[in-house]
Amino acid sequence: MTSHDGDTDSRDRGEKRDGYAAARIPVYLRVDRDADELVVYTDPRNGAYKARTTHPYGAAVTLPDPVAITLDTEELKNYAG
After folding, report:
1. Contact 52, 38 (CB under 8 A)
2. What is the dihedral of CA 73, 40, 68, 80, to 10 degrees?
3. Staple partner for 76: which of 16, 57, 62, 64, CB 3.0–4.6 Å?
4. pLDDT level of residue 1 (50, 70, 90 thresholds)
5. Mind listing the pLDDT tens digit for each residue in 14-69?
6. What sign has the CA pseudo-torsion 48, 40, 42, 17?
7. Domain ranges in the chain?
8. What string of H, E and C letters represents the secondary structure of the chain?
9. Are 81 and 4 in contact (CB under 8 A)?
């Protein structure tokens, strides 16, 4: 989940994501409270995620393997703002 602290927020959007991609973590999720959406990063290659999808709060989001679940994001509305 993105932070309300500007420094931490920039780490959530860049450093953490890039670090997970470099470690080849197959799926990285970011709950973006500013945009009220779930961002799903997949396909880590050469230190970066090659695929990114966004989903509004309330959507059912099917995550790819190896996670392979459908995530109901309705509850995220309670943490927005």
Report:
1. no
2. -20
3. 57
4. very low
5. 789 999 999 999 999 999 888 899 999 999 999 999 999 999 999 999 999 999 99
6. positive
7. 6-79
8. CCCCCHHHHHHHHHHHHHHHHHCCCCEEEEEECCCCEEEEEEEEECCEEEEEEEEECCCEEECCCCCCCEEECHHHHHHCC
9. no
